[in-house]
Amino acid sequence: MVPASVFHGIIVVACPVRRPIVWTHFCIALSTKKMEKREFSDLEDMRLLYRGNKILGDLFSKSVSSIRQLTKNESEAKGFYRFLNNERVSEEDIVSNLVSNCQAACRGKYVVCIQDSTEINLSSHSNRIKKDSYIGTTNANNEKGLGFLLHPSLVVDAYQCIPYGYSDIKIWNRSLELKSKFEREYNKLSIEHKESYKWIEVSNNTKTALADIVEGMVIVQDREGDIYEQFAVIADEKTDLLIRARANRTLADNTKLFDCLSAQQAQGCYEIPVEAKKNRKKRRATIEIRYKQVEIKKTAGTSKGVPPITSLYLIEAKELNYSGEDKICWRLLTTIAVQTVEIAKMCIEWYSWRWTIEEVFKILKKEGYNIEASELEYGSSVRKMSLMIMEVIIKLFLMRLAYAEPEMVINTDTCFSKEEQDFLEHQIIQLEGKTEKQKNPYKSKDLKRYVWVIARLGGWKGYESKRHPGITTLWIGLKYFKAAMVGWEIRRNVSTR
Q1: Which of 44, 145, 276, 434 is deepest in the core (most CB within 10 A)?
Q2: Helix, strand, or coil here: 390?
Q3: 3-class DSSP state for residue 251?
Q4: C-alpha angle with apex 213: 7 to 50, nearest 5 degrees?
Q5: Minimal CA–CA distance to 10: which of 410, 315, 266, 349?
């Protein structure tokens, strides 16, 4: 459960978008941690280890998933294809290495583990891709899509949302001839035989991976994770759940979950900024907070062997004086003892961090590496490549975070080699303007200095008064970075002959 120290010294502040509303005096101490290099450390032999890390490095520096664009010649391309097709490199091996990187990064920390699912739709390649046991139907095209599904647990720091990696990634596919839920008598299946068991399975694997590593953890899930069995069996002395309520359950006292707070006076009120997005205007939202301890009960369809009643806390965050379709109304169920407004606000903030895993999916797919357009012919290869890209995305998150948080120091070696740093120093000279506002404001060699360069290459104008560069801008900048570096190396080598 959440230790008292997590909430010691809390200061609630009005904050910009995507910045915690709750800060602690631990932040600066946490931010100076030197991040480990994110690469493979355990594969069957050194050749596979070298090849795997070469692919990871090129995926990051070139920001493409096409093997032809990643490699310099036919020999290197064949090596990459062989690695992805090699039976001695399994999905389990890749996930194990990703989990190991996460464990090294978050040791001794208090963390938030965010789960969600996405599907990789390969329908546009249905005439080319091999329909083997690694792909099946997806929800696309009225459940006639072709591909597979991913369900990761993204681990971030509980104080600053620093991404540490993944505590588990479930990857699977349905049958190519999937029967309907009616034909499968889905409602009669035990939870272990339903696809929704992914939430419980990944939660259990997360506990196994992190129980001896971290100080404590909060598992955050959207409404799909609102499963009685999770609340009944997952939480322990180091593990809490924070899940958005899906169903208006009947409680143990026969009242309804969504109604039990309606007559209660608000216990807190504060303002948050809401970003403008498609069909959503920028505004400042006034949020009322209510919370209460509740008891939920098992239903006729609940698995046997779980307690009949489970005690939780319900938090309601509801927007006032606004009637748009995007009006905020979150009802969160948690095993955390919510006894103060500050703890309730922290839980609301942790749930709002779900956007981080959505950005992972965005960069993996259409707005980044576009893995769904991969030229790979085997589903198994696309699946392995997807897992490797997800590890590379953590570096992108670190780059953006390093720039957004002035106090945070992340070592440059985490993302760039010595040769790449030399090139980036050269680029600073080329990209700086004549005025002070157009110059790189970071003098020491921490990651911020070079993120400035990547962002400029990605189209950011360099003005610190404007919005900081986002993930997509950094991804675009990396594409130009590698191409420019190749030209710089050729020119440098020619000039020294």
Answers
A1: 145
A2: helix
A3: strand
A4: 130
A5: 349
Are the CB atoms for 89 and 48 separated by under 8 Å? Answer: yes
Reading the block at residue 312, the tokens are 């939780």
Q: Are 282 and 275 in contact (CB under 8 A)?
A: yes
Residue with tokens 């498609």, as numbered in its chain:
278
Q: Other C-beta atoms within 10 Å of 300: how many?
A: 4
Tokens of 188: 């009669």
Per DSSP, helices labelled H in 36-163 are 46-62, 67-70, 74-85, 91-106, 140-143
Contact at 8 Å (CB) between 315 and 344? yes
Per-residue pLDDT of the chain (497 residues; tens, 9 = 90+): 555 445 433 333 333 233 333 433 333 333 344 445 788 988 888 999 999 999 998 888 888 888 888 888 899 999 999 999 999 999 999 999 999 999 999 999 999 999 999 999 998 888 888 888 899 998 887 777 899 999 999 999 999 888 999 999 999 998 887 666 666 666 777 788 889 999 999 999 999 999 999 999 999 999 999 999 999 999 999 999 999 999 899 999 999 999 999 888 999 998 888 887 777 788 899 999 999 999 999 888 888 888 999 999 999 999 998 888 889 999 999 999 999 999 999 999 999 999 999 999 999 998 889 999 988 999 999 999 999 999 999 988 888 877 777 667 777 877 888 888 888 888 888 888 888 888 888 877 778 888 888 988 888 887 766 677 887 888 888 888 877 887 887 777 765 55
CA dist., res. 337 & res. 332, Å (int): 13
| CB-based contact 219:167 (threshold 8 Å) | no
DSSP structure class, residue 233: H
CA 140, CA 339: separation in Å to the nearest integer? 43
- Complete domains list, the chain, with CATH: 4-31+92-377 (3.90.350.10), 416-495 (no CATH)
- pTM (predicted TM-score): 0.85
- Burial classification of residue 266, based on how many CB atoms lie within 10 Å of its CB (0-12 exposed, 13-18 middle, 19 or more buried): middle
Measured distance CA(348)–CA(431) in Å, rounded: 41
Nearest alpha carbon to residue 482 among 75, 68, 80, 70: 70
What's the rounded Cα separation, in Å, for the pair 209 and 204? Answer: 9
d(CA 48, CA 89): 8
Residue pair 150/170 in contact (Cβ under 8 Å)? The answer is: yes
Q: HSE of 266 in the Cβ direction (CA atoms, 13 Å)?
A: 11
